[in-house]
Specification:
This protein is mainly beta. It contains two helices and 14 strands, in the order βαβαββββββββββββ. The chain has two domains: about 5-70, Translation Initiation Factor IF3 (2-Layer Sandwich); about 90-185, Thrombin, subunit H. The chain is elongated, with a radius of gyration of 18 Å.
Length: about 190
């Protein structure tokens, strides 16, 4: 049985709208041996990780100046109702770290695109920053007002450091003795 190819144009939609559109089409095409090709202007990393973590069979292809998410509904086992990633960093050894659902990050093997493990963080992990030497991963947790520090050799939590209220972003200083974070001022 030959597969049917469905082309979608997701340009101009937000990442959330793109994922919603892909999920709608997934439901319609399940059991039809179809392949869905969805074009997006910008690199859809967040959408890709979100679908991958949920169990969809998805690949990412570059076509000239745009990118295409290729989704194969048959053979996928999605876990519906989960939100997806919005911060991704790549380790030099090929592992990919991304914030995900349930107050944790996913460690993904970049070559096989499989989740190796999940590491618990604080509430609502919102930004990831890899140390300059790649030995530590810093996770800004905006819901619990702290930073989770992870040892990337073992992918285990080393420590948690308190920060200001509603932490959104962090960056490392060149000497790595301190990190800089952006949070809401407490005295307002």
């Amino acid at each position: 049985m030959s597969s049917q190819t469905i082309d979608l144009d997701l340009a101009g939609l937000t990442p959330e709208q793109q994922v919603a559109r892909l999920k709608e089409q997934y439901v319609l095409l399940r059991g039809r041996n179809a392949v869905m090709r969805a074009r997006a202007d910008a690199l859809p990393v967040r959408q890709y990780i979100s679908l991958l973590e949920r169990g969809y069979r998805v690949t990412l292809e570059r076509e000239r100046e745009s990118f295409t998410l290729v989704l194969r509904p048959d053979g996928s086992t999605p876990r519906l109702g989960l939100r997806g990633a919005h911060s991704v960093v790549s380790h030099s050894d090929g592992r990919v770290y991304t914030n995900t659902t349930e107050n944790r990050i996913a460690v993904i093997d970049g070559s096989t695109r499989r989740v190796i493990k999940h590491v618990s963080t604080g509430d609502d992990p919102s930004h990831l920053e890899l140390s300059h030497d790649g030995q530590r991963l810093y996770v800004a947790n905006s819901g619990s007002n702290n930073v989770t520090i992870i040892d990337t050799t073992s992918d285990e939590v080393l420590a948690t450091a308190s920060t200001g209220r509603r932490l959104y972003f962090l960056a490392l200083r060149p000497m790595e003795t301190r990190f800089i974070c952006r949070a809401e001022r407490i005295d307002r």
